[in-house]
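pasting for ref
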Amino acid sequence: MAPVAQGQDFHGYDPATFDGAMPPAGNLTAMVAAAMAANPPKNGTQYVIGFANLQRDITFCALVEQGILENAAAAGIEVVVADNRLDGATALANAESFITRDVDLVIEFQTDAAFGAIIMQKVDEAGIPVIAIDIPMGDALFFGVNNPRAGFMGGSYLAQAAVAEFGMDRVMEGYFIEGELPQSGPIPAMRTGGQVAGFLASVPGFPEDHVLTFDSKNTLEESFTQTSNLLGRIPEGAVVMGTALNDQATTGILRAAQQDGREDVVVVGLGADEKETRATEGDVVAAVGSFPERYVNSLVPMALATIAGVDLPDAVLINHVMVTKQTICDYYPDQPCAEGEALAYAFPRAEFEAHLASLQDDPTLADVKNLIPAN
């Protein structure tokens, strides 16, 4: 396939300027026609895309799947959906199934970095292009969260919200709980590491031994269990501050603290897909918005552009905003905005730039520096 110049508009889709809205059906149809002119469907009639979802019953993942199916239906594309179930071996089996089916392209949303290389080896050998969501996989196009920035935003907002509610003295005596996901490798670690760095940037001198981390397994249930264990190390009456890799794991922190009878709790989510929890729970002050129901609108255009030979950037990162109780209705009209003033949040820009510089110098990130934003 002869690539077109990088950044060229592809029937209304340009990663640099895309606003997240689902492309009109006419644009999607034009994308399909362009792809067919360059590289016809393998079955001779209709493109077939394999989509391996992270886990279909997670809210965020369900929204991603719904968006892909809606875009594909408008474009006249068939999507074969599989469930990776947060398991590397299952993801490998799903990839092998896609190869047997001889799909035109695969969209992978899989969590186990240890299986990424072998999955990509098999799919590459079959000559099938891949787009990886949120967790990079070899030479696949990457699409997803701006991990360092999203994390830093959430952590710094959490610290500032806690100080505004409880005062600096009580915050400095409190505990910060962070839900991580080690099995997914260094890229999601940039998100959770950014949360810790952002938190500490807003409360300099916070005691290191008051930062408690755990493996969330990317689920509410595991986060609840692990947080319940950690709460035994936190004195009664201490302020409990929490955040995690996603909204679900953050909710697990909140539910464990509530069950333990903790009254002074503040959490910040990441994803903004648990909108009802964020709108109604007083202890959930905000979430970093990823808007899966909108950002997924990039994936089918990216798939068709890839098939058509358009030279896309090797990493497409989304833009994030803080979604608060006072602004939630701006993004989700079915949720009412709370009255009153939102936190006078100040993003610690100088500290963030220093954090980015430290990531650039991290040898474990040498192969994925394209996923570290410039600013």
